[in-house]
Amino acid sequence: MPRIPDLKKVMVIGSGPIIIGQAAEFDYAGTQACRSLREEGIEVVLVNSNPATIMTDREIADKIYIEPLTLDFVRRVIEKEQPDGLLPTLGGQVGLNLAVQLSEAGILEKNGVRLLGTPIEAIRKAEDRELFKQMLREIGEPVPESDVVGSIEDALAFAREVGYPVVVRPAYTLGGTGGGLAANDDELVSVVTRGLSFSMINQVLIERSVGGWKEIEYEVIRDGADNCITVCNMENIDPMGVHTGDSIVVAPTQTLSDEETRMLHTASLKIIRALGVEGGCNIQYALDPNSFNYYVIEVNPRVSRSSALASKATGYPIARVSTKIALGLRLDEIENVVTGNTSACFEPVLDYCVVKFPRWPFDKFKGADRTLGTQMKATGEVMAIDRTFNGALLKAIRSLEITAKGLSFPGLESWDTEKLLHRMEVASDERLFLIAEGFRRGFSVAKMAELTKIDPFFLRSIQEIVSMERKLAGVNAAQALSPELLRQAKRKGFSDDLISSLTGINEQQIKKLREQYRIVPVYKKVDTCAAQYEAAIPYYYSTYEEENEAVPTDRRKVLVIGSGPIRIGQGIEFDYCSVQSVRALQTEGIEALIINNNPETVSTDFDIADRLYFEPLTLEDVLHVVELEKPEGVIVQFGGQTAINLAGPLHTAGVKVLGTSVDMIDEAEDRERFEKLVDKLKIPVPPGRGATSLQEALAVAREIGFPVLVRPSYVLGGRAMEIVYNEYDLADYVESAVSVSHNHPILVDKYYQGQELEVDAISDGEDVLIPGIMEHIERAGVHSGDSIAVYPAQIENDVREKMIDYTTRLARALQIKGLLNIQFVYYQGQIFVLEVNPRASRTVPYLSKITGIPMVSLSTRVMLGKTLKEMGYKSGLVQPNSLVAVKVPVFSFGKLSQVDIYLSPEMKSTGEVMGVDYSVPRALYKGLLASGSSIPLSGEILVTIADRDKEEALQIIQSLRQRGLSFVATPGTARFLKGHGIEVKEVNKIEAGSPHVVDLINSGKVGFVINTHSGGRGAVRDGFQIRRAAVERGIPCLTSLDTARAMIDCIDFAKSGQEAAIISLDEYTQ
Amino acid sequence: MNSCLVLEDGTFYQGQGFGSRGTKTGEVVFNTSMTGYQEILTDPASYGQIVVFAYPLLGNYGIILEDNDSVSAMAQGLVTRELCAHPSNWRSMMSLEDFCKQKNLIGLSGIDTRALVRHLVRKGSMYGVITTEEHDVGKLVRMAQETAAAERDLVRDVSTKEARVFGQGSKKVVVVDLGVRQSLIRYLVEQNLTVVLVSALSTVEEILSYHPAGVVFAGGPGSPQFAPYAVTHVQQLLGRVPLLGIALGHLVLGLAWGGKVLKLKAGHCGGNQPIRDLESNSVFVTSQNHHYFVDRDSLPEDVVVTQVNLHDGTVEGMKHRKLPAFAFQYYPVVNPDVFDINRYFDEFLVML
To answer: How confident is the model at residue B1 (pLDDT cuts 50, 70, 90)?
Structure first.
């Protein structure tokens, strides 16, 4: 069958910002789709609000629109571009929902846009619970007893009929937002209430719980001629009941017999055929561990997180193949790019084992509820490959960067057994570690299986790891560590670091012993065919076996270190940078090697780098690759803190770190050295210093004056950073922070509540190019990642000149070769440097896109020895164009119960969007819309303002009133506002009893909340309850007056009746 | 224990022995299926072979006797990266290791099986010796070479010795046992047929004495060249009764029709062999376990190729233009997902 005729221009909708449940996997899928379309000579129009994606890069699509993913904006792009087709299934749930809306609104038909791939009917059948059930019943596939309900009464009636527990899922959401398990009437009422509010169509599915059954997934592909194959099956180690995004997943299935896999294989093909999917889809089953009974749980008629995982796990590019199918190609007409000489019509076979481990944000959110259920909480994930399950599991654990070397965490050994057993029963991020501890205490597999419902196969594997731990713990001297035992330990996946901590022999010595005994890893290929055909792709993983397949070439080569799992503070931006760096190396004719472990990303697509090493990012694992490949250097500037942290150790191990020297990185990061430097350069920084006790901290604070910014000295990325306003809060902080930081000093700095400014620059050591200066809407004290950033900064000339001067001198003094990022605060007419980061920052993609300056490419080439002059650039600030670009952070608070949402020095956002237009209010308006927030144009706003903010809030509230908004306030705020002549309704504080402020939020009568943090810590305060209630109800809640002030201009713009502009990336630099 | 596998080209692989003890020779082949080790080991087509499993974890779900594809294990030995000592599956009856002990299979674990598979892909399948005993490598290499030279008819070893009847159906088929998988018999019985399983050595008269509505030649190990009697029988039965050839039976029909049978370099052993049906132009994936193929160009005018392998173009299905006779290189019934094969299979059933 030939390609669909007359298809010249196709639109792809991306998935927007990174949030829990929707991470980098759709950048990976979308990027692959765009490349796949262009291979066929098709012009690609791309819409995505997320500037940190590769897919929004000039090289990926022909026309790129970084615009809000709303019906209105996408419609306008369609009207402007007039594409022939739309590919709806590559942009996650967001893209899919939008495509459905566009189709239902008649926009596609009106503009002659053809929906490609899976037809809208199939999407409906898969997404609408009732149609889905009906379809499955027709083809004789079992579904759990369930009902779609639109009210609490119906939900209760159903639960009483089939019995508890029941599972509730809202229709049309992602990551299980608003879903949950209910074991009784009370729980059901609360879960259903929330679920209904989150559902796009005000419906929830309620169904019999199959908790404890095995959760099995199939990735299936079908073409328009009804040919279909399964790409991969996967088994969740956690049984049913835990969201698959929060489950530890292994591929292929491990505990299913041939008969069972065949049964589900047959069912999968039957289902995809009945649905009529054209492209990829994911099918989830619950399988009874004690019979052949199974239920079909869910079908995703699109590429998904699981399909990204399946693609990386097998080497089969699902998004690429789905795209070709959408163009009318058949499976057998699509080339298998892995082997180069077979077609896409085959089922990949693995000769290794893959483990995916979720990365949760609980290290950031100490107070968060760590139990796992049907609502996803992980921000990202890692994948590991080895020839055994143990090996892959341990690799995955050390890839997580949660400081765990193996299946243990500090303090676990002192838990009492009752607590251990009790906590094991509930799924949580710690459960696998608890199981290992259980085995250390001698519990049986049967007991653990009973408690956890995890299959004994996996439990025994953990037991084997523990028994190896025991063997190693019995060794106390290097000479007692036999080659046999060492080899066995390495083959089980034990890192040198772990062996070292068990035996007490230092890591270097273990490495030396291994080299002496010739116990070194070899690298094998992921080739889709278990070596049956010679693979053309360079995708490798390490293992301790005989034959090494990764034979280095004799070309010049450089290793780029990736950024690992997506977590708060280290998002997709760094994958963008890594990929860009790889491209730049290739352009320079250098072989680009990449090492990374995140299966969601573009950087781990096997055709990005010249060689992909899918490995943990620990010193040992990176060194193994370096020792094999002998690259001329390693690039650490683009992989976020993960990579920069490796700079020192790699340098010590004799590896050449390209760009800024390790010594200079240290000078920028080491507090004392940095102070000396700025002193010498006469560059002002806020006063402050380290303190090792409360007395000392108090002394420093008294000397410099409150408020102060405090943080433990050893953590990075704003973790545990706080602003304290008085001695009492400082004492409270020191007590808890010191206990976390093991008597490391804390840093106490003067907090200047000024305007925060930020610079990204490229330096060759001599010339310093500053692509742009950004200004933060929120004042200093809100983490830069959580602030709304505006480019270009709207500042006075002399301030700008000073910033350029400081940046240039700092870059020269630190001999920066590559990127640097500097945060400034402008306070009472003076500009201070807050911190210097000698690496790519979060804003690099955003700034690169708006300015058109290829920042990563330039800095990569600088690292290779080129000068900015040679590349046609000179020192100084690049003149901005007529556009304003606003970066707006996006949070995932709805998924994390018990987390306080107020903006603080500790970063909390998971993603970002960009709004671009010809003025700040316009750009901000677009940015806010894109971030999912709304602009209050009428109705009531709830205001609860801390005392110290009241004066400042007054003017903002007056402005809002002039714009037709009315207010409800808690007594203190109400009194204050009335005192200033503002009409306001009063509402009880919580302690005053119902109906109180939380009841008001729950009633849905207020459409917006402005709440400022009263200081102090803990979850008991009213403020916390108010903020949480707003999040649970999906009501926008601003916790910074700066954001509220900025919103006033947006309201004016929205009310002006003008239309925001639609601007393509090409137009930015015209 | 210095257990090892030695190949006729002199390469050898050391690991840990499990299952039965001793020394055995056989053709060393690899299989890429990720599940189904038990079915592969008990498939009579694996008779005499030392099977190298590409998937590194073996024995996870233990042994489920009712899933066997023959009464006794048919392979000589097996090679894996890691053996699971404690299987987990609700139907599991014993561990793979215990099964190997019972069925006299020599196992070898701890091997870099990917390296071994790559070696076999490059060099083609070859003979080897698997041993758990003290040994001299040179001697074992010679042993492997001698076995290779002494290739012989394996069908008579695996074929049933006496006729057996299965099921009570409306129609009767005779299955000539070239080394048939039990799953085919089970399937035919489910199709409401009486199945008479007869020895591969049965004469045409014996076969016809059951008054079958159709005859199936199915199995089994090795090359059909070593079973000329089966070829003769097919030639004699052709046109007198509907014929169906499966797996080795497909090759036998090919020879009977005057075609040539050639050896594949690395075999089609695994669950992911894609096939194109030339009539409907649809494609599908099958599970296969064989090392020979019918040379397409050697087939006479009267025979039409119905299906080919998508990867290497080899013949996967054929039928006679005039006479009621079909053949498939794979087992349609173990590939229940494949609709179109069942169409041919149904055509055969309708002819009965």
So the answer is: very low
Q: Burial-class residue A554 by CB neighbours within 10 Å (0-12, 13-18, 19+).
A: exposed
Domain count along chain A: 6
Q: Is B91 on the interface with A (CB under 8 A)?
A: yes
> Which class would CATH give B3-149?
alpha beta
- Using CA atoms, how far residue B103 sits from A349, A695, B98, B129, in Å, is 28, 77, 9, 18
Is pLDDT above 90 for B338? Answer: no
Are A343 and A523 spatial neighbours (Cβ–Cβ below 8 Å)?
no
Count helices and strands (H / E) in chain B. 10, 19
User: Which residues from B are below 8 Å from A253, CB to CB?
Assistant: 35
Q: Which residues of B touch A343 (CB under 8 A)?
A: 274, 310-311
Structure confidence by residue, pLDDT tens digits, A604-614:
999 999 999 99
By the 8 A CB rule, do A270 and A381 touch?
Answer: no
CATH number at residue A61: 3.40.50.20
Interface contact B61, partner A, CB < 8 A: yes
- Average pLDDT value over all residues in chain A: 92
Same domain, A496 and A540: no
Residue of B nearest to A532 (CA): B121
Q: For B263-289, what is the mean pLDDT?
A: 89
Dist. CA A46–CA A364, nearest whole Å: 34
Same domain for A503 and A388: yes
Domain limits for position A638: 523-658
Name the fold adopted by B155-351: Rossmann fold (3.40.50)
Distances (CA, A) of A443 to A5, A418, A435, A466: 65, 12, 9, 12
In sequence order, which residues have a C-beta less than 8 Å from that of residue B336 and are 6 or more positions away?
A262, A266
- Helix, strand, coil abundance in chain A, percent, nearest 5: 40, 20, 40
Structural tokens at position A256 = 């299913």
Judge if pTM exceeds 0.90: yes
Does the CB of B192 have a partner CB in chain A at under 8 Å? no
Instruction: Say yes or no: ipTM exceeds 0.85.
Output: yes
* Phi and psi angles of residue A791, each rounded to the nearest 5 degrees, phi first: -120, 135
The per-residue pLDDT for A109 is 96
Contact B117 A530 (CB under 8 A): yes
Report the residue from A229, A261, A388 with minimal CB separation from B35: A261
- pLDDT band at B337; cut points 50, 70, 90: low
B331 CB near a chain A CB, below 8 Å?
no
Pairwise CB contact (< 8 Å): B32 & A529: yes
For residue A314, is it within any domain?
no
d(CA A1012, CA A950): 9
